[in-house]
Amino acid sequence: MEGTPFILSAPSGAGKTTLRRMAVDFFPDLRHSVSYTTRKPRPGETDGVDYRFVDEGVFDGMEARGEFIENAEVHGKRYGTSEKDLKTFLAEGLDVILDIDVQGAERIRGRLADAVYIFVLPPSVEACRERLRGRGKDAPEDIEKRLEASIGEIKRAGGYDYIIINDDLDKAFGELKAIVAAERAREKRRAAKVKELFNV
Ligand code: 5GP
Prior knowledge:
Layout: E1 5-9, H1 16-26, E2 30-32, E3 36-37, E4 52-53, H2 56-64, E5 68-74, E6 77-82, H3 83-91, E7 95-99, H4 102-108, E8 116-121, H5 125-135, H6 140-154, E9 162-165, H7 169-184, H8 187-198
Parallel strand pairs: 1-7, 1-8, 2-7, 3-4, 8-9
Antiparallel strand pairs: 3-6, 5-6
Helix pairs in contact: 5-6
The structure holds guanosine-5'-monophosphate.
């Protein structure tokens, strides 16, 4: 049985990366799809774990060869999901969480059967600004640029299957766990297991 892709999108500062890390630590059979990006690593980020950090030339080559199932430009940098990496996990029966922006999520629709779309919202714009400032990794003008983009993204949350409002991290993580567990228990994903157990 193929694994399930969970598409996690959110405006910057909503706490999506923290939630994704918590989910991958919690569920042993859930993997993070590590994206390719042309942006520089932030302090504390590791190549191959947080992202695969590549230059424009490598990214161009991958795009030209059609190796991305989706790719997009976000805040002036390029990001993409390798189709091969993703499909390898899914074929092994592993669920995969994709931490991608709204454009990427829209592009992936129709290319991935049975994906589950989850949108993480901050409790307010001010909370978003505070989180971005607090992590101290972005210049003030970048923070304002990200906030402006966030409003545009929030307007597109309507097409998602689930919305998590992250006003409390434990509560938000509880909801994410519940979504993953419920999706795994759907009849269509358990049909093969039922057949195996009861030969019906
Ligand atoms: P950051 O630079 O803060 O890590 O990420 C900026 C935005 O790019 C986030 O919304 C993140 O989810 C998104 N992103 C990361 N990887 C990908 C990807 O492979 N494709 C797309 N479309 N967006 C991505």
